[in-house]
Amino acid sequence: SGYPNGLKGKEIPLGARILAAVDCLDAIASHRQYRRAMPLDDAMEFVVSESGRSFDPAVVAVLKRRYRELAGDQECEIQREKLETNLNIERGLAPAAGFQQSQSNQVENDPVADRLVFLSSIAAARQEAQVLFELSNDLGSSLSLPETLSVLDLRLKKTIPYHTMVVYVLKENCLVAEYAQGDNFQLFASLKIPAGEGLSGWVAQNTQPVINGNPAVEYGYLSDPRRFTILHSALAIPLNGPSGTIGVLALYHKQENAFSGDHLRVLTAVCSKIALVVQNALRFREVEKSATTDGLTGLPNATSLFLHLDSELSRCKRSGSPLAVLVCDLDGFKQVNDRFGHLEGNRLLKMVADALRACCREYDYVSRMGGDEFVIVLPGASTALLRQKLCTITRAVEQIGLEVCGEELVSISVGKASFPDQGMDAEELLAEADRSMYQAKQSRRHAAPKAADGLFDEVDNAA
Predict the structure, then answer these.
(1) What are the start-end ranges of the H helices in 198-296?
(2) What is the three-class DSSP state of 181?
(3) pLDDT of 164 over the 90 cut
(4) What single-letter DSSP state applies at residue 90?
(5) Which of 64, 70, 98, 272 is most deeply buried (CB count within 10 A of its CB)?
(6) What percentage of the chain carries pLDDT values higher than 70?
């Protein structure tokens, strides 16, 4: 079709016609992340099959005569190689560790060459010292783990060449990617590597580094044998904290044997600092989470509720959109604890929390105020939607009570308050919804699901 200018045949510049054919041959005969390379001869046959349609026949004819000469014998052999990715690593064996190549080609007894090497070594050492100094100052300046690891990524690239960096954290005897950046970062971010499996799993279990390992053996990285990785060497080092190994820092490169002993030495010098920073950031995250999350149900707690509700109200005031708050209280919950024990009561609370989440939209907000009381924030909810929510919640909770207790012992009372009609701030809305909930509890204690619509009307009238 001659995109973009409608050029056809000899109107297309000769350079473009040559480039199109050669580029196609090179692409098909090269490894790609999504497929293996086609043998060079087969790739040439494909180009020939497109002669006269996609490519200039005269160009293809010349290319067919000379493609082996142009590619070179060595390059042809490289293109035919196949990398085996279905590798099983036995426990205790280092996976494809490799060794640093010796510099045997240096000129011996050459004073000028020795001086240049000496000066280069001084410059490299000075740069390395500067990077280590910057890392020591920057790491730990923030308790945000993504921010800290992003700074680490930026600093390390000044000293160690790599294309992908992944920081794995050990959770429940499996490594999960806490930070992944670079080529194939999405694949690495999705990995869950058991300790002892794959390259990084071996490093975590044996607390020993691996230099110039094979990235293809990472557990779960290339589950499809037809896929081919563009990364060919890895440098992985364990992150050992005061309480043991907390994770692994892995660097990946596109070239084989890309890492040297100097690169390993730099990582070794900073790995204890990195481990301490990562551990502190993880602890801070847990403390931050526990301060705003209910430990039993996993729902946001009262502190988090007020922060979220204030934020939602500010947004609603700017946009003029409505917002509804539902306060829900379980009826008969004390009898569950008294008759079946607190463990069954806790199980019922967890099931109710899951049911409330399932009844809501993804942008609704469900929280536990404490005890058997829950609060739901519904932005932009219409009267019809609220009526439907009430029916769904009532039926779900009574079904859970029947499942846990074996009888109709548990029900739920719900009160509603709307912004801006019944309150302008979080305290007013929650107080009004709470008052409405107690009215509903008194008027319809242990009500059947079919009366849910009537309850909604009574709550509306009372409000």
Answers:
(1) 198-206, 261-292
(2) strand
(3) yes
(4) P
(5) 98
(6) 78
Closest CA to 332 of 400, 434, 389, 401: 401
Residue 177 phi, psi dihedral angles, 5° rounding: -75, 115
CB 416 within 8 A of CB 436: yes
Beta bridge partners of 398: none
pLDDT at 451 over 60: no
pLDDT score, position 19: 94
What type of residue is 206? N
More confident residue, 385 or 115: 385
- CA 175 – CA 306 distance, rounded (Å): 35
Which among 276, 195, 269 is positioned nearest to 240, based on CA atoms? 276
Q: At residue 120, does pLDDT exceed 80?
A: no
For the whole model, what pTM was predicted?
A: 0.52
Q: What are phi and psi of 169, to 5 degrees?
A: -115, 135
Q: How do residues 338-377 score in pLDDT, each as one tens digit?
A: 888 999 999 999 999 999 999 888 889 999 988 899 999 9
| Letter string b/e over residues 367-377, b meaning 16 or more CB atoms within 10 A of that residue's CB | bbbeebbbbbb
How many alpha carbons fall within 13 Å on the CB side of residue 305?
Answer: 23
- Of 329, 315, 306, the closest CA to residue 419 belongs to 315
What gap in Å lies between CA 369 and CA 360, rounded to an integer?
17
State the SS3 of 404-463: HHCCCCCEEEEEEEEECCCCCCHHHHHHHHHHHHHHHHHHCCCCCHHHHHHHHHHHHHHC
Does residue 57 contact residue 88 with C-beta atoms inside 8 Å? Answer: no
- Amino acid 23 reads D
Cβ proximity of 288 and 301 under 8 Å: no
Query: Any bridge partners for residue 328, and if so which?
Result: 374, 414
pLDDT of residue 373: 93
Cα separation of 140 and 148, whole Å? 7
Look at the block and give the residue holding tokens 């869950």.
192
Q: What is the mean pLDDT of the chain?
A: 80
Helix or strand or coil: residue 267? helix
Q: What do you get for the CA distance between the two ends of the chain, in Å?
A: 69
For 60, the enclosing helix (H) or strand (E) is helix 57-71
> How many CB atoms are closer than 10 A to CB 87?
14
Q: What is the DSSP letter of 297?
A: T
CA-based nearest residue to 324, from 309, 339, 337, 346: 309
Residue 89 has pLDDT above 60, yes or no: no
Question: In angstroms, what CA-CA distances link 397 with 51, 62, 81, 355?
Answer: 70, 77, 62, 7
**Residue 110, pLDDT score:** 62
Helix locations, 81-144, DSSP H: 111-138
Q: Which two tokens stand for residue 241?
A: 């904290």
Whole-angstrom distance, CA of residue 390 vs CA of residue 454? 11
